[in-house]
Amino acid sequence: MKLNLYRKFSVALLAFVVLGCTGDFEEINTNPNSPLATQPALLLPGIERDMIHAVLGEAWSIGNVVIQHTAKNQFVNEDRYLWGELNTIWNAVYDNMRDINNIVKQAEVSNQPNFRGVALVLRSWMFSLVTDSYGDVPYTQAMNGKEGIFFPEYDPQQKIYEGILNDLKEANTLLAGAININGDVIYGGDVKKWRQLANSLRLRYLMRISDQVDVRAEMQEIVNDPVAYPLFTGNADHAVYSFQANSPDQFPLFTARIGSFNEFRASKALTDKLIALADNRLYIFTRPTPVTEATASTSDDVYVGVPNGLDDVAALEYNGGPEFQSRIGPLFFEQATSPKGIEIAKGVIMTYAELQFILAEAREKEFITTGTAEAYYLNGINASFSFYGLTASPTYLLQSEVAYTGTREEKLEKIGTQKWISLFFQGLEAWFDWRRTGYPKLQPGVDNQNDDRIPVRFIYPLIEQSLNADNRTIAVNRQGPDDINSRVWWDVK
């Protein structure tokens, strides 16, 4: 009898415990320190900082080298086109795209068109980076793991660009009259400037695909109506990330090992061009070498760039050794946290100078009828000099290699060359643009290991072969071999 009573009591107690626990199960098992959602203003600065660091890192390690702004005198594989997988941009874009999509979704729910517009601008820029680096990439189905899509298809680049341009157009509409935002470290929350960036980027990407698509109507629509489609109007509008003097937000190279910094030197291609033009941006970009016996008769500083693509021995011994090879300017290293360094050593999304060179090319090619190509071209040069606290003298602008004279092709080459100079330390964008235009007329690295071809894309991350093999294979079959010489859709040169 006692045993039966004990069993009944035990069952009743168990039922009470179970019912009591399940009544507030979700509340008890919810971690208050692990929120399911957050505010867009808290996500935005991390995205901006991560992406700028990724772009700067890939520019320093490969972009500036392949576009011959810099050259290597040690560990020269990159300079000889012995490229393995380069995953910085891929990882940064897709890692941060989750938060971009969260901002877009939360902005829709909370009716915040300002945050949605800014997120669309960033999403467009980020996807342009990954598609211009690799070609066809996951786009439509990217970041849809929660919807059960674990193996996203690679979209054709043409489709990706349609999405990029549509997003930028929508962002322009959303940001018209929108209120400023918090958490933005690019423009301090000024949505008017984000709107200018949206339209300026739209011109960049229309020009990017202009060898494949007739872009005249869209470009003309934008430049014809600065009220409906505001653009950058000066250097104060350009999209840059300004680093700080103090840790933890200093210019990334400021904390680099001196040996790692010094294995990158001024390239002969850029240095010789700046010397030939008497271009005083040379003194910002590079440093003079010590006086040698060969230069002892002059008191002028000597600048010597290293030819791109030399083998290890030749690169290290060039011009008598590292001591006599120009290093990159101090504002990009030990002086990056000085007041002048903070003004110059920035992470760049897009500048006013670039926009003006785009407009100059568009006008010269008669994609637009507004303004004159020469005026845009000169604006671009002057804006680039001004970015570095310099002034382009009348003598500089009137010399034959700079003055806006000659045939159409000669003028386009001048635009391309000045744009290339202005994109110093923006190696990825400079590389993308060179692939489209062929200007300046760079020569492959001296002892390159790629059959005298400058690379035109990155190979896909090797992990894709195991994690998303079928879709990668479809993209490769559509695009061409997964190597550094297969051109992306818009690159028809």
Outline the secondary-structure elements.
Elements: H1 2-23, H2 25-28, H3 40-66, E1 70-72, H4 88-109, H5 113-134, E2 137-138, E3 154-155, H6 157-175, H7 191-208, H8 216-224, E4 239-241, H9 258-262, E5 264-266, H10 268-276, H11 282-285, H12 312-317, H13 339-344, E6 347-350, H14 352-364, H15 373-387, H16 394-398, H17 408-422, H18 427-437, H19 464-467, H20 469-479
Antiparallel strand pairs: 1-5, 2-3, 4-6
Helix pairs in contact: 3-4, 3-5, 3-18, 4-5, 5-6, 5-7, 6-7, 7-14, 14-15, 14-17, 15-17
How would you describe this structure to a colleague?
The structure is a single chain. The protein is mainly alpha-helical and 493 residues long. It folds into two domains: 41-242 and 346-350 and 425-479, Serine Threonine Protein Phosphatase 5, Tetratricopeptide repeat, CATH 1.25.40.390; 252-341, no CATH class. The protein has 20 helices and six strands. It has helices at 2-23, 25-28, 40-66, 88-109, 113-134, 157-175, 191-208, 216-224, 258-262, 268-276, 282-285, 312-317, 339-344, 352-364, 373-387, 394-398, 408-422, 427-437, 464-467, 469-479, and strands spanning 70-72, 137-138, 154-155, 239-241, 264-266, 347-350. The chain has a two-stranded antiparallel sheet.
